[in-house]
């Protein structure tokens, strides 16, 4: 997990890489993803590259 990143309550992460300054919202389910710097993620994601925007 990268510097400054935060993971919300009840979030589930599996086989996922988290870069810097990422926010994973509470209850999110992330599997097999790469989460790039500054991304804010909510919901369910599988095998995706998640970028800010």
List keywords for this structure.
53 residues; mainly beta; three-stranded parallel beta sheet
Description:
The protein has a 3-stranded parallel beta sheet with strand order 1-4-7, with no helix packed on it. It has a 3-stranded parallel beta sheet with strand order 2-5-8, with no helix packed on it. It has a 3-stranded parallel beta sheet with strand order 3-6-9, with no helix packed on it. It is globular. Helix content is 0%, strand content 40%. The chain has no helices and 9 strands. It has 53 residues and is an all-beta fold. The chain has one domain (6-50).
Q: Record the strand order, biggest sheet.
A: 1-4-7
Proportion of residues in β-strands: 35-45%
Q: Structural class from helices and strands? A: mainly beta
Measured distance between first and last alpha carbons: 20 Å
Unreliable stretches, pLDDT < 50, 5 or more residues? none
Let me know the average pLDDT.
97
Radius of gyration: 9 Å
| Number of distinct helices | 0
Largest sheet, if any?
Answer: 3 strands, parallel
Got a strand count?
Answer: 9
In percent, how helical is the residue content? under 10%
| Domains (count) | 1
Shape: globular
What is the N-to-C succession of helices and strands?
Answer: EEEEEEEEE
């Amino acid at each position: 997990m990268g510097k400054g990143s935060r993971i919300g309550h009840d979030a589930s992460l599996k086989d996922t890489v988290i870069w810097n300054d990422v926010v994973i919202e509470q209850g999110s389910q992330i599997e097999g993803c790469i989460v790039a710097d500054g991304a804010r993620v909510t919901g369910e994601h599988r095998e995706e590259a998640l970028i800010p925007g």
